[in-house]
Write a structure and sequence with these properties.
The protein is α/β, with parallel strands linked by helices. The chain is about 30% helix and about 25% strand. Strand 12 and strand 13 form a beta hairpin. About 30% of the residues are buried. Keywords: Signal.
């Protein structure tokens, strides 16, 4: 009898959980490498992401460095119009170019339920874009993140729709300021039960939090651990300037090292990409088997050689380049040299071998004084 009573009490919860859907949205106007990285992580962990704004012109400004991003609010508002009355299902909205998933939808929902709030925004260390609003935020415990970040949030569909339709916003307006003003309104915060993920249980924003995280491994994947709060977040977000460069503190069972890397490099260790036990997992995906192709169907690749310091045995380098076992008519060759003593070797290679390539160009050192400038031009 007691067992039946327990089952009766649990059954509505179980059926509600099974019936609930998580609608995942992002905005991506360009299908670039960063978006493909995001999509790969979503596919691995079973998220069905709907992309908004695909093929549209981005009108939201340079959001990595300046206020902007209002276009994201507009696109989400348009998408949710037909779901405006849905109080059962959830919306998860994310940026894409600087985001990767690190765990499954089931784990995400379990943590969301445990947090006990209807609408949850990610939190970061900086009050952006209006720093003077910092004093209006509720205080948090040491090691936690205090300020709203609009790059990821979750909540019931009806609530999210009311938030994105709360007031007008132009494409070039700042989406983070838009949501910040809602959160800082105590009546609205209470009405929609809005909370910030200050402990990074769901969302880990990395800007300003580099020393808070380390990367750990199991047999299948790498994942982030927030050492300040003890959380293992589900989603990593390389927000703001952190996507350019940051220090990653890596801790495995034996080895500890500090390394300055880009966000692109960090993601090489997340989302079942590489582990100490299995090596490069990603390397076995989407492979092209050249022995099954005619040379005319080989992928076209670019090889760029930058000579920016005195280099011994340079003739051996050019010999090895010439001897590469790959059809030269499928290679774009880019050469650069700002070392006077080596320039003749570069010119000689271009004259004697350049015609064999699909194209061969020399980036003028008079116009691009440094190898960094030349690399930016080449890429």
């Amino acid at each position: 009898m007691l067992l039946a009573h327990v089952f009766y009490l649990l059954f509505p919860i179980i059926t509600t959980s099974l019936a609930r859907e998580l609608f995942v949205y992002t905005v991506a106007t360009d299908d670039n490498d960063a978006f493909q990285r995001f999509k790969r992580s979503a596919d691995i962990y079973g998220y069905n992401v709907k992309v908004l704004g695909s093929g549209e012109t981005w009108l939201g400004g340079d959001v990595a460095n300046f206020p902007g991003g209002g276009q994201k609010v507009r696109l989400l508002k348009e998408e949710l119009e037909h779901l405006a009355e849905d109080k059962e299902n959830l919306v998860l909205f994310l940026d894409s170019y600087d985001v990767v998933f690190m765990d499954t939808e089931d784990v995400f929902l379990q943590i969301y339920d445990a947090l006990g709030h209807r609408v949850i925004f990610s939190a970061e260390k900086f009050c952006w874009p209006q720093a003077y609003l910092a004093t209006k935020y509720p205080t948090v415990k040491e090691g936690e993140s205090r300020f709203l970040n609009s790059g990821s949030f979750v909540g019931p569909v009806a609530d999210i729709y009311e938030l994105v339709t709360h007031s007008p916003i132009a494409n070039e307006d700042d989406d983070q300021l838009y949501y910040t003003n809602i959160f800082l309104d105590s009546e609205l915060r209470e009405k929609y039960d809005i909370a910030l993920d200050t402990r990074s249980e769901l969302f880990q924003n990395l800007n300003g939090a580099l020393e808070d995280v380390k990367i750990g491994y199991n047999d299948d994947t790498g994942y982030l651990v927030n050492t300040k709060t003890g959380s293992q977040p589900v989603i990593a977000h390389g927000n703001g300037p952190i996507k350019v460069a940051f220090v990653l503190f890596y801790d495995s069972k034996v080895t500890v090292f500090n390394k300055k890397v880009k966000f692109n490099s960090l993601t090489n260790y997340l989302a079942k990409t590489w582990t100490p036990a299995k090596g490069c997992i990603h390397c076995s995906e989407d492979n092209i088997f050249l022995d099954e192709l005619y040379s005319e169907a080989y992928p076209v690749v670019q090889i760029s050689a930058f000579i920016s310091s005195p280099t011994p045995f340079l003739e051996n380098f050019f010999k090895n380049l010439a001897d590469l076992d790959y059809p030269k008519h499928r290679i774009y060759l880019t050469l650069y040299c700002n070392i006077e003593e080596h320039y003749s070797s570069l010119l000689e290679y271009n004259v004697t071998k350049g015609y064999e390539y699909k194209s061969a160009i020399i980036i003028p050192e008079t116009e691009f004084k440094t190898d960094i400038a030349a690399k930016n031009y080449a890429w």
